Amino acid sequence: MHGFFVEQGINIRIEMKLVHTISDLQAELSALKAQNKKVGLVPTMGALHAGHASLVKRCVEENDVAVVSVFVNPTQFNDKNDLIKYPRTLDADCELLESVGASFVFAPSVEEMYPEPDTRVFSFSPLDTVMEGKFRPGHFNGVAQIVSKLFDAVRPDRAYFGEKDFQQLAIIRKMVKQLHYNLEIVGCPIVREEDGLALSSRNARLSTVEREIALNISKTLYKSRTFAVDHSVEETLQFVESEIGKVQGLQLEYFEIVDGNTLQSIANWDDTTYAVGCITVFCGEVRLIDNIKYKE
Question: Residues 6 or more apart from 203 whose CB is under 8 A from it?
Answer without folding.
Answer: 49, 197, 211, 214, 286, 288
